[in-house]
Amino acid sequence: MRLAIDHVTTYRFAQPITQGMQRLRLTPVTGKGQSVVEWAIDLVGARAEAGYDDENGNRVTLVAITPGVEEVTIRAHGVVDTTDEAGVVGRHVGYLPLWHFTRETELTKVGPKIEALIEALADRTTSDRLATLHALTALIRDAVAYETGHTDVATSAEAVLAAGHGVCQDHAHVFIASARALGIPARYVSGYLLMDDRVEQDAGHGWAEAFVEGLGWVGFDVANAVCPDARYVRVATGRDYVEAAPVKGLTFTAFGDAESDETLTVELSILQVVPA
């Protein structure tokens, strides 16, 4: 499947920015299940300063905001060929050991709600790790209804379970926290998903991956109750959303404020195209 992606993020600041940096994880890389045909990042109100691969193997672009601007636009766009690998990404590569992905983060701490979920999973747990992870996916899907407007990027897995609703990012964090509680390495994935009913979208997508002996990393999209297929494009991974966030930065105003009031708009289109 050939997917054309056009992702535009616009920041509008209440005051002119005197200094600012942004770290972009918006560049997919070729790997199992996907091949990047072409990709580019265009900037207005900022300039690229450096690029590197981080500890998770993500391609990172460091961006400096042009002093005095009140608006910054980041456009990531390109074409990616994908195949259906039934969610299997394969062997572990990169600079970090597998045990790194069993450690808690602020967003994936285990509390009473996660512990209760693990107890509920006990009746479905088998010696087959893959089967256990599929059972976990179904359990989270039942426990957390997909509803927008109730959570944000700082909502923890424990808080999501307590609320009983959330979005794809929240489903992924609950899955990751639960898998780690079972001693299974797990990580967050940010990327894109071709929708069946629309081209225009409000945001990118997020899901989880867990490590299964004999298969390697395997993806689980709890929000859609599937393992990622040819409709998915992986962009960045990390222990949680924070480490895989598409855009993260810091800005200063003339008053020395470390954070400026800002509004964020996202325009995203993903469609299948026919190779020339």
TrEMBL record:
Pfam family name, one: Bact_transglu_N
Database matches in InterPro entries: Bac_transglu_N, Papain-like_cys_pep_sf, Transglutaminase-like
Residue ranges of coiled coil: none
Positions of the Transglutaminase-like domain: 160-224
PANTHER family: BLR5614 PROTEIN-RELATED, SLL1049 PROTEIN
Protein name: Transglutaminase-like protein
